[in-house]
Amino acid sequence: MEPLRRLVQVIATLVTNGYFLFPQSKNIYQGPLKIVCSPGLNCYSCPASTTYCPIGAIQQLLLGLRFSLETGAYYFGSYVVGSIGLIGAFSGRITCGWLCPFGLIQELLYKLPLGKKREVVYPLRYVKYFMLVLFVFLFPLLLTNEWGMGKPWFCKYVCPAGTLEAGIPMLLLQPELRATLGLLFYNKLLWMLVFIGWSVVTSRPFCKTTCPMGAFYGLFNKISVVKLELVEDRCTECGACAKVCPMGIQFNEVVGSPECIMCMRCMKEACEFGAIQLTCGGHSMSAPQRISRKKQILTEE
Ligand code: SF4
Ligand code: SF4
User: Fold this and answer.
1) How far is the CA of 263 from the centre of ligand 2 (A)?
2) How far is the CA of 242 from the centre of ligand 2 (A)?
3) Ligand 2 pocket by C-beta < 6 Å: which residues?
4) Taking all residues of the chain, what is their mean pLDDT, rounded to a whole number?
5) What is the pLDDT of residues 140-173, one digit of tens each?
6) 59 C-beta closer than 6 A to ligand 1
7) pLDDT of residue 207
8) What Cα–Cα distance (Å) separates residue 106 from each residue in 22, 43, 133, 216?
9) Tens digit of pLDDT for each residue in 171-191?
10) Which atom, in ligand 1's list, is nearest to the CA of 250?
11) Whole-angstrom distance, CA of residue 227 vs CA of residue 57
12) Whose CA is nearest to atom 7 of ligand 2?
């Protein structure tokens, strides 16, 4: 399953960043595909990006809401909110585990054999809800200038994916931009370096602590159409699922946790009792698991 997931991650990254003419154009792609919203966090201003970032689009909708209501431009923002709502309702946080380019980058960094690997302090996981509510929704909507326009707070002050995928490449493509660098850029560069360094020693620290996209999708994990479920009478509470989980959770103790990115490693690599199943609308989609006689006895006990 892991090779398949890695392949899907790479394909998704290439599809959402498939504008390979940027070294010649020296600018971002602005063709017709740019009205399509990518399912995962992927900076709009990345020179190779072919799609719109949903978190950026929500902020754009809210920061100019009063102006947009007058011009009718709010339709695009509404479409974005509607489409990520549908994605979340259908498949919860599976996008984070299978399609997000920044998730892939963090996973590759974590594979580097450097430093002592460690888990995040649990309370930090709540910061992503703070980011979603304040930096994505309330600040862009409420903190406006004299013309009623707000700022895209998350993109402007935090997003390390934006700095890595857009800020730095654009500075390389357009050297004249370097003269405009100020405190704002260095603040974001610092965030980016923190998350890159942190990803080497901790699995997916940005997803666990800060990503508003993950916070949003995670809200649907318990109720989504496609989800992972526990077959309780098969679970022996052996704890094997916790040992492979990139999000640091034990599946059987927190079924439907908003932290789960549905990578399915617990189901495929760890649980030997067939206690974890992928379901769609309540119907199992997992292949019937072969359980040894010894494990059957253990399960029955
Ligand atoms: S690996 Fe399977 S049997 Fe063991 S605790 Fe996790 S869900 Fe239960
Ligand atoms: S609980 Fe299972 S599916 Fe969810 S993130 Fe952990 S290993 Fe992946």
Assistant:
1) 5
2) 8
3) 228, 244-247, 249, 251, 260-266
4) 87
5) 888 888 877 888 999 999 999 888 888 888 888 8
6) no
7) 97
8) 24, 16, 24, 19
9) 888 888 888 888 999 999 999
10) 6
11) 27
12) 245
